Amino acid sequence: MLPDWAPNVHPLVVHFPIALLFVGALVDAVALVVRDRHPWVRTSAVGLYALGALGTVAAFFTGRDASDEVDLPVRALTTLNAHADWALYLVWFASLYAALRVAVLYWRREYRLAIHLPVALLGLAGLLLVQQTAERGGRLVYEYGVAVAAASGDHDGMDTRDPSSAPPDTSVAARLDVLAGAPAEGSVFTVTPGQPTLAVLPDTLGDLEARATLDLSGFTGTASLVHHLQDGQTYDFLALDRTASGAVTLRQGRVESGDETTMDSGTAPLDGPAEIRAYAVGTHFRGYLGGEQLTHPHADAAPPGRVGLRLDGQGAVRVLALSATPVE
User: Fold this and answer.
1) Among candidate residues 314, 303, 289, 307, the one with its CA nearest the CA of residue 202
2) From CA 241, how far away is CA 252, in angstroms rounded?
3) Is residue 84 part of a domain?
């Protein structure tokens, strides 16, 4: 059972591989000096590297799960993605290096200096990956307050009120360029079967967070938050599939030259207005319904494009809010 202060298991395991790999390098350095008299020191170093490799795997997967469970401030996204990328590089390096050390240990038991020194230096070089990964993990906690209780009320100054209590933002629809379908009447788009509505904000953005709050009580079909839109046939999307009853499905994917690919999906109940949020930063994508993350795919980064809504179905959709924030 987790202690009350721990939001997830990641902070409980992440320090073990760091310590094991650094101590492994230290013991390896000692083994260079005493390799002839005390060969067990070299074996101990190899064991520490093997345990460290296992620890990086545990830290990587618990970290990935942890990132899916916390509400991330926009300004932390680039650091989070870099942390995940460096962690993956470390997993591969530590695993392959540990396998190499075990193989060399049994292949050349006398372990001459001409062999021991190069492989030991390679282990030292691998500590750079540890430092890069740990630095970005530390920034997430100490600079951005990710998963820190004292900082839980600060989300980049964003309004955290219940969106259902906010009045409709009629200015949103007025700012949208309608590329297909009928224009809005006030804040309401009326969609007819076979005639999707596509309406976008004027700005062109690269890495971004996009948010939409929609009243779908009078609508059945698919309401999509589209981003990196090049034209009506090429864009990324976070789509909410709503039927007349039951849970809704959130899908995140890409349309290229009219061909749609769903990269990840999840289901959840919907009670009241739908607050959907899409992150697209480099090759990392995330999709939220309310405060719950339901999708987390990876794909090639899309070129900068526009953000908006695509509504395909039947009925009326009231736009309560729509925004796009660039991520540096």
Assistant:
1) 307
2) 11
3) yes
